[in-house]
Write the structure tokens for this entry.
Amino acid sequence: MNRNGLFALCFNALFALFMMGPLIVVIGVSFTPTGYLEFPPSAISFRWFRAILDNPDFIDAAWISLELGLASASLSTVLAVPAALAIGRERFRGRDALQALFLSPLTVPTVVLGVAFLRFLSLFDINGTFVGLVLCHAVIVTPFVLRLVLASVTGVDRSIEMAATSLGASHWTVFRRVTLPLILPGVVGGWVLAFITSFDELTVTVFIVNPSTTTLPVRLFSHITQTTDPLVASISTMVILLTVLLMLAVNRLYGLDRLLIGGEAR
Amino acid sequence: MMDQPAFNHGQTMAFLELQALNKRYNAVVAVEDFNLSIQRGEFVSLLGPSGCGKTTTLQMIAGFTQPTSGSIMLNGRDLGAIPARKRGLGIVFQTYALFPHMTVEQNVGFGLEMRNVPSHERRRRVSDALDLVHLSHLGDRFPRHMSGGQRQRVALARALVIEPELLLLDEPLSNLDAKLREEMQLELRRIQQEAGVTTLLVTHDQSEAMALSDRVAVMQSGRLIQEDSPFDVYEKPATSFISTFLGKTNSLPALLERAGKRTQIVIDDVRLAGPQTVLANGPVELSLRPERIELTDIDKATLSGDVIERVFLGDHWLFRVETPIGKLLVMQRNLGRRGAEIGERLHLFWEPEAMRLLPRGDVS
């Protein structure tokens, strides 16, 4: 086996440190007993974790973010899978335009999107509502789902579907029994990426929330514009912890490599 | 050999009848005026180089491609109006196209499941099909844990278990290595005969087509150019394209002349006694198979020449010999003696009838 040399090891270690550094600082700060951001903490204290319980508006915001992530990731997946199947394998007029349309939210500056959504939702009088948030987030996260599903669609051997058809399967049965299981890594991967993107979306969301639909990122943002206490650090630590637990669970159930890099089904 | 079906008696329609089949993609003609009849139980190969339209023909029979015009009749039914999933054909794809997320048993049982066959009967038929391909011990494996040859057999079992009226094989052996391919050729023939299923094989591999089929249909540029038994296609190729495509041959431009009843072949300034032919005097294409050339003594030689290349292939030698009529490929069976060295003079003999004369100037 080809082992890394000393230089490569140092490089990799520095790279990992660079990636992990901000997280380490945030986690460190969250354990401080002081009332300001202090790193490294002078002592270990759970003061700011207890403080989370005294601020139910953060917990409410976390629930809204969670529900928003689930709803918008699912909605965009439902839209992106048929789109990816059409774009990935059919040749039709307007195919490139359709793909560009689906991917365009990536290229438009998010601030511009936020202003646009604000105006658009007001027209239909749903600005600030949860439904409005879900629709906007679905638009933002669809490119991520589409790209991952597209990648797995192009990897599917068409003759596998032809084989199913020749054995008597209808279009819907071919999709349900053959196509969907084969593109599932892309679909699940896209959904997870969409969920994460929606969960921490801030720039667009600040334009379109109202006090009853404030998401966690927006709540944190408005908190740190007013004070600089370590509450944001302890909440961030909780989010990191939940993310790690989620990833561990996904890894256990499904395999992270397959999710993020893609691979053979089951 | 199985009982030869009685071909073409009276006006009874063949089991599979392709009539005036055409397929055009905009300006490109993929298949042109294609006619082919296959009798029940027959094994026919569609042979041709890539891009000759053979796969398009198969796709039209399977129902994945719509013909531009023409008809496909199977056992009296017009397939044109029937969607692919209701045609009930067994298809083995070049990539095998197994369902990677299903076990072997689930793969084979898929077609029965689609037909709502009750589960106990399904189990019995799946196990019969796996017996037929000698894979009954691997029913709970996933395809990715199997070798190429095993996957091939699963694909075959999956296609046969639905008891199709017609089995379509699309380059089924091209992904196997040479040794396995030969084994599978025999195996495929056995399975086809045991199942007694009418079979159409599409391939670019002439040895595969010859080894497996009762009849070979050769395609070139979207057209059917010859349709015959493997022996006749090899021995009596209709065009010089076929003579070079099937096996090895020495193909030389020549001039045909007649002196009385005898024919003569003129190449450059060499005159040879020619074979009987119906062709008119004038330019012809001469085809001489390397295995028809024998090594002999100088006094019996048709021509002599020097060895300029030689290849040892185990069971035979292949020499390239520089002769007055050009470079000739010569095959010599390996009888345990050392072959001629490069530069050595060889004396060659062949019967005039070993030379096949073909009209000059067909496209190839």
Remarks:
- The radius of gyration of chain A is 22 Å.
- Chain A touches chain B at residues 157, 159-160, 162-170, 173, 177-178, 181-182, 264-266 (CB under 8 Å).
